[in-house]
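Exercise 7. Predict the joint structure of the components listed below.
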Amino acid sequence: MIRVLYWKIRISLRSVTKSESRAFLFFLGVLVSIVLAVVVFFVSRRIFRLILEAAAFGEVAGVGSLWVANLLSIGFFFALVMSLFTALGVAFSTMYSSSDLPLLFTAPLSVREVFLVKFAEIILRASIPTLIFSFPLLAGYGAALPAGAVFYLQSALLTAISVLLPAALGAGLNLLAVRLIPPYRIKELGAALGTLFGAAIYTLMHLGPRHLTGMSMEQALQALEGFRLSAAGISPAWWLAQAAVAASKGDFGAFFGWAGLTFLVSGGLMAFSFSLVTEAFYGGWVASGEVHKKDRRSRARERPAGPSRPGRDSAREGAGTYGPSGDTESIQGFVTGVFLRRSPVLALALKELRHVSRDLREISNGVYMLVMMIVALVGSARGGGQWLKGLGQAVPLYGSLAATFLMSWGLSSSLGLGAVAREGKNWPLLRSTPVTGREIVRGKTLGIVPLVLPVALIAGIAFTLLAGGTRWQLIATLCFVVLVVPGMVSIEVSAGGIAPNFEAEDPRQRASGWAFLLGVLLELLYAGLLAFGVFLAVSNWLRYYDQPLAESRVVSTALGALGLVIVAGASMALFTIMPDVAGRSLDEMEAVEQTPGNGAGHKGKGGAGAGPNAGRKS
Amino acid sequence: MIRAIKLTKTFGDLKAVSSVDLDIQPGEIFGFLGPNGAGKTTTIRMLTGLLRPTFGKAMIGGYDIQTHPVEAKSLLGYVPDTPVLYEKLTGREFLDFMADLYRVDRRRKKNRISELLELFDLSERGDDLIGSYSRGMKQKIAVAAALVHDPKVLILDEPTVGLDPRSARVLKDVLRALAQRKVTIFMSTHILEIAERMCTQVGIIDHGKIIACGTVPELRALSKEASGSLEDIFLKLTGGVEYAEIVRFLEEGEEARR
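Solution:
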């Protein structure tokens, strides 16, 4: 078993250094980790010094070991959470989606031995956040005291113990999740949760400091005390913190008591997940692909498919409910117009709509983008907004239009830029059908618009109401959204279609950097054109300004109409022209890129190929 | 129905496919054989319009697939070597989607999808997401998708890989029935028994060149293997005789040990 673990580590190291670029990235990662650890050390040393000095001079009542323990507890809490997320991801990739499992299980190793190897892998990888965060935190505390060498030894022991807990919990949770969720969806769910976690961290990082600014020391400490998750008696983070405080005081009994408690709980969890692993392997994992078997049987009873019962089938289809999945019935019913059904563009649009709405990764990426936009808008609204005062009565309208535009842009970019490359390995199949590039881009644009539009409308309503806009301003904003979104989505889908990366697993890497820049440039030009159109319409029709552009009513009306034509025309033009341009580019591309490596068909050695089928046999 | 004229594809200095000429008539089942890396998939990709030939032409139903891709592809059904499909669509939705791409008439489409699901024993799972399918089921739905628009030409890259015996049999029967209806079938396979039993014509490609083409008796005559199976012919033509010798050596060694 030790030999297997040795080989696993060796293979992992070789995989990170197998090419120069990978080795460079690995080196960069190590460097960043060291820098982070050093930063954590210096920052924590500074903070602990401040607290200890404040306690020594009695500046703040009650400051002392309790606050130190609170701070340590929060530090451990974050380290544990980070390790837990790492452990969850690693547990999935090493225990289930790992390609070496068949090899290991056919080797003369027991199931328990194989899982011990996997467990060790989880611990090794989950320990990285702990090494970057927990140990430097404790070292910073030790330096602030200053503490002796024994404290650092005890800190190292605490750090090691703190890794066990998330690793065991991660493995256990992973196994439970696998039992409940089909394996083909769990990766997607993990990615979605990770993205949403990232959004939460982003929000905290941007809005948290603003909230904390201006707090007094006492308020800050009260807030610290109120952080119950880390300070509760049942929290392992709190136990670890108590152990660290005991170590700093040289109280070995208390140190071993708290550290032992953490170790025992970790050991218990480890034993539990270990037994679950074996159980899951023989029972849950094998059966997990059959989670919906019961549902299928009941469906089969309700709605037998195939020509054996044509009468029943056609009766159901007549009602517009031909698919069984409830989440798609409304979409199906909506698009099931008799004359529309044969259009490949609409088929592609419907497929895109289904694909995105059923993929948790896509949804979470969209949500992530929305959160970022909201945070940025809230931040700028709280921090500034003085320049808006010069715009007089038009502020609510301009403000809500600009905010809605930005929000819609964010979502369009998130869903649209990678829309063509979303085809991934299906691209050759799609290109073998009689569908042109233009139809593909247009279909994808049509599929994304219904996903962006409702969010943009809600954003428009919310921003107009928040800005104190009138009913007319609200109507104007909603019209603006309906007119503008198709053009915006068209830009993003087309820009992404000019240089798609079909290989990318991560939705954010489906378009190249310059496709993103092209999208940004075109959206900025579009925004400029729209701003001009809106300005003409607003200044001449809604007459917000004391001096409209033209005194004559006819000229003023004409200018207003011109503004509207510019807004609608820009969107229409983009919706028409952009798919043509991107479609032509797609038609000129080869559907599969081959290199001598895969073109000559050396199975499994075609890694040099960049196309969707790179590496496949010929 | 399928014509390749001097079809050539080079990658840098390497000629993956070199001057391939093919002329396959309606109703023929053409077996395309060759060792790994011989250029089978590259040829198929050029025939389906997925790769642009460096030189030469690929014609489907009289249409050049490069200059008239929509017309040519309308006649074509293609089953790729690996069934990579839309995991977020159900089997039924996928067939519906493919039928729409080929502009299949609505009423015909409905019946056709039901028939195909029934034929490949997928009716019960037709409403489950493809992501939950096994490899064999994915292969079946890929074959069904290629048939949904009633193609005039069917190009299949290793179609029986991953299929259970029943589905493999169904596929073979379907292909024979289609051939009787004058559908042209172009099939690459490593299972020589299938090629021998099913194909009216067999082409063998090696190092990017067609080294033999014709009926099995014609190939037998060409390889001077009067009573040999297609496997023997294939090994002889592609220089794979040494593998047979290795097997013989191992067998003799085993007997000697006994």
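Discussion. The longest helix of chain A spans residues 20-57.
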